[in-house]
Amino acid sequence: MSIIASISADVLKSAQQQIQQDLTQALDAFALPEPLKGAVYHAVMLGGKRVRPALCYATAALQPHRHVAAVRRAAVAVELIHCYSLAHDDLPCMDNDSLRRGQPTCHVAFGEDTALLAGDVLQSMAYEVLGSRLFDTGVAIESGIVLKQMQILATASSKMVCGQVLDLQAEGKKVNQEALENIHRNKTGALIQAAIMMAAVTIFKGTDPAIPQLRQFGQSIGLAFQVQDDILDVTAETEVLGKTAGKDLEVEKSTYPALLGLDAAQAYAQQLHDQALQALSYFGEDAQQLHAITQFLLARQH
Amino acid sequence: MSIIASISADVLKSAQQQIQQDLTQALDAFALPEPLKGAVYHAVMLGGKRVRPALCYATAALQPHRHVAAVRRAAVAVELIHCYSLAHDDLPCMDNDSLRRGQPTCHVAFGEDTALLAGDVLQSMAYEVLGSRLFDTGVAIESGIVLKQMQILATASSKMVCGQVLDLQAEGKKVNQEALENIHRNKTGALIQAAIMMAAVTIFKGTDPAIPQLRQFGQSIGLAFQVQDDILDVTAETEVLGKTAGKDLEVEKSTYPALLGLDAAQAYAQQLHDQALQALSYFGEDAQQLHAITQFLLARQH
């Protein structure tokens, strides 16, 4: 393992431990009736790469700040939104997937009605967490910052649904690269960018030139993530992927490998990563963690 | 028509016109792709009594204030949450209803996948609206108030889902009155109370004694609404109700008439209304609009 890969693994592992702990604490703070509680824990606690919280933490690490609790709440909130979207995506009327992260999907384990409601409640729980005092140790955060976090999260969540609709509309059709990018900027990119921007508005003032740099970074890394996902759907085995491989091809989804060919898709992923790193160069050494995650995302096999 | 009934009808009609106009303006501000856009408009614009926005406006009318735009946003947000819940409740994996407000339900008109996504996006749109500058004419509202609105809405939305789960769990079982009230305080009561409290925190300081009075009013009227709903399911015709009558009995739902008998259920509805009016007595003449709506809710036939 190269030194860079090893740093990436450490940053990711540390973020994963943090978010696992914080998600547990957050979920435990809710009084949910069974079987909803079981379904919510199932949807949230199975694991996954936790890329969004990791990006949230790594962005907050760009400078020393006193808003640790607010960043931790943002990371939990964005992951809850991500988990709600997965629970709903897997439903029979959507992708009808039975396997997620190597485990039965939420509706397979808990029934369709409970999986639907688990997704629904995860969405409102995200805003409850954001507006709570969870993880606070003293200094309360200004309301204006929480409000900005909420706006970013809500806008990205709506975009995510729009992207999902555009994606369903494109099934079985041949779309061009511009249309495909529009799908992915909404479907996946928006929430990844939100994870970064929720931290950004917490630690930087609205007028700070860091903000547009991070927005650019978020855009590039968000799209790069999806291109890589498309590539892995072609190249990886179901076992490694933890979800059904080759699924995109089967339902005639438009993907980057299908559109550009595998080699060109890989080159495009590399190009987007270079763009992401370019945006980070503004921060110099301070962006070490964001660098590490960017590196990990390009190298990932699942 | 008695004078009181006529005032009630006027207050309701005026609220309905206002919310119809504001919902249109709010939805038009979003760029949604088809068929999501069609499904969202279908779910939202079909009408309905608009009880929650009416309660929101009537609460804000308790005193002169300068936060008209924030109250209008709150009314839109709470109605979007209500509409999302209806779209999801009607889905085949839930109540499997094909008729709502005398029209085909969202999934009948647009397909299950689109109805699911319409519900999902309506939830995030509610928070987008809340955090927006929609309807603003000048004075921006303090972030702290919007944050409180968000907390109230998110908590009520989570409770609504919990109530839904408790309700499903109770089907075919005999539950006692305490359990039934717990279901309804969550499933219906929480969001009705939220409509009132979102306006309350906008126009009153947190320490104002008006706040607990309105919380009490919201609790009583929320439960009264559901008791009345149960009664109408037994007594009304499908045509008047705009949704399938007798449905509760069919799926062996626990209801107040089933638990207490029809007469006792009607007496209980009256008692809850009296409690609601008692809480309003604190406001004297200022609560005229809230009185009128309370009156309407007890007398309603659908």
From TrEMBL, chains A, B:
The record, for Pfam families, names: polyprenyl_synt (PF00348)
Species: Acinetobacter brisouii CIP 110357
Give the source's domain of life in one word: Bacteria
Q: Which prosthetic group or cofactor does it need?
A: Mg(2+)
The Swiss-Prot or TrEMBL record describes its family as follows: Belongs to the FPP/GGPP synthase family.
Protein's name according to its UniProt entry? (2E,6E)-farnesyl diphosphate synthase
Cross-referenced PROSITE patterns: POLYPRENYL_SYNTHASE_2
* Positions of transmembrane segments: none
Molecular function (Gene Ontology), one example:
prenyltransferase activity
| BP GO annotations | phospholipid biosynthetic process; terpenoid biosynthetic process
Looking at the UniProt record for this protein, which Gene Ontology cellular component terms does it annotate, in alphabetical order?
cytoplasm
Keyword set for this entry? Isoprene biosynthesis, Magnesium, Metal-binding, Transferase
